[in-house]
Amino acid sequence: MRKYLCCLVASLMCLIWAQALQSSLEGYTPPVHSAPYPASRSLEPLSERVVLVIVDGLRADTSAEMEFLNALRAQGYHALARTGQPSYSRPAYAVLLTGASQELTGVVLNSHSGRVELDTLLRSAKRSGKKTALIAHVWWNELEGGDADVTWVYSDQASKDPTTDRQALQQAITVLDYHECDLVILHFCYVDTVGHAYGGASTEYLQAAKTVDSYISALWSSMDPNRDTLIVTSDHGMMSKNRKGAGHGGYEKDVITVPLVMAGRGILRGQGSIHQQVDIAPTIAALLGIPSPSHTTGRVIWEALNAEPRVRAQFQLAEAERIAWLSAEYLKALGRNSSRQDSAEAASLYDARRYEEAAALATANAERSLAAMGTSRQRRIAIGILLRTLVLLIPVLIVTRRYKKAAKMLKPLLIPALEFIALTGLFYRFIPGNTFSLSVFPDAELSTFFMIFAVPSYLALAIVSRRLVGQPRPERLVLPLYSAYLGLFSVILVTAVINGLWVTWYLPHMGIGFIQMGALLQGGFLLLPASVFAVFEMVWRRLQYRGITAMSRR
Predict the structure, then answer these.
(1) What distance in Å separates the CA atoms of residue 438 and residue 515, rounded to the nearest whole number?
(2) CB 152 within 8 A of CB 135
(3) Contact 288, 47 (CB under 8 A)
C-alpha cells in the first residue's frame, strides 16, 4: 500500500507545482517599472499622419494573395516581421503599442487585465501635442487606459461578427475626413476569428483576408499619399490546421511570421528581409517626429524611410540617449551597475553637420546599451541554471551513489521510463500541428488533454513493458506506474533546470515551458490509476487474507 501512497503524493505534488507555474506566468511582473523618459530633443516629422492597420491573425503567405496589398507593396516598402513569445493577441497589441517585448511589457497572456504600465505610442504622441485615434478591439483600449483622443472599440463578442470590420472601416474613414488626427490605429479582427474556426490554410480564411483587402483599398482611397503614411501588419499568424479555438500562441513559422507593408509619405520603394515586431513602434515614432515610447527596444527601419541624413541623425541622437537611460534602469533592476554611453562626441559631430557620422556613432552607442542589457540578462539566467543544477541534480547523484539499493531499483525502471517518454512523443504526433507549443490548444483545453492523455499513456507503457501479462497481481501494476513517474520526473527535472521552477523576473523559453507543464499535468493526472490500483491492492490483500483464513479453519 505504501507504494501507491508514494504515487499519490507524487501526483499531488505535480498538480500543486503545475498550479504554481501557471499562477507565476499569469502574475508575471517585468523587471522595469519606471516613469517615461523625459525627452528633451525636438524632432522633425517625415509624415503628417500615420495610419497603422492591424489585420488580426493574418499570415505572411496569405497576405501575398491579397490583390490590393500587393499593389501597395509595389508602391512602397514591404518585408516580414517576426513576433515575440507567446504569440497571443493581447501581448502582441502591447508590443505594437510600446515597441517592447512581452518580457518587458508584462503582458504575456490574453487573460491579462488592465493598462500596460510602460510608455506607449499614443502617450508619447499626446505628450508631443499630437492627436490620436483608436478604432479597435476593446483589449486595445484596456491596454491604453483610454489615452486616445478619439476612440471606437468593439467587444469580444462583436469581433466574431463579419460586419464589425466594415463598421471599423467606416469609423476610420470618418476620422480621416472629419478629425485632425496625427496617428490612427485601425484593427480588423474577423480574419483571426475565421482562422481559429477553419485553420490558416482554409478557403474560408483566404476569403476573409481578401474581404479585408478590399477594406484596406477603401481606406487608402480616403488618404492622401502626399501627406499620409499607411502601415499594414498583423499581431500574429495562424497555423494551417488547428483544433477549433486554437491556432497561435507558439513559435511555428506560420504563427510568428507576419506581413509588414508601408506606403505613402516618407516611405521609400523597396523590399526588406525580416524585422522584429518591436521595430514597428519606433519606426512610426520617426515618421511622426515624436520620441519613441520610453521602453522601446526595437530599431527604426531606416531603410524604409525617406529621411535626410540630418533628420536621421537628429532622431538617432535622441534614441541613443533614451536607450542608455533604459539600459541603466534595466541593469539597476537586475542589481548591476551600468556604464552610460557618452553622447557628447555624436552631438558634436551633429553640430559640425557631419550628420551621417553622427547617426552612425549614435546608433553604435544605442547598440552597445542594448547589448549590455542582453549580456546581463543572459549572465543572470546562466547563473540561475548553474545554481538549479547544483540544487536539483547533485542531491540525486549523492543519493544514487550512497544507496546502492536505490541504484539497483532504478535499473529495471530505466527502460520503461524511456518507453514512457517515447510513447508520450508518439501519442503527441497525432495532434494537429505536431509541435510542443501553445498554438495547439485553446487555453482551456490544455489541462483537459493531458488529463485524458495520462491514463492511456500509462496503460500503453504497462502493455509495452509486458507487466500486465498473466495474472494481474498488484506488484505487476505498480512497476509501470513507477516507471511512468520516473520518466516524467526526468523531464520535469531537466526543464526545471533550464527554465526554473516557475516564472520569476524573466520569461523562459515557451517551448520548454510547455513540455514542463505537460509533464507536470500528466504526473498529476496519474493520480487516477494510482488511486484505482491502491483500492485494487486493498481488495486483493483482503481477498487473500480471507482465503488464507478460510483454509486455516478447514
Answers:
(1) 10
(2) yes
(3) yes
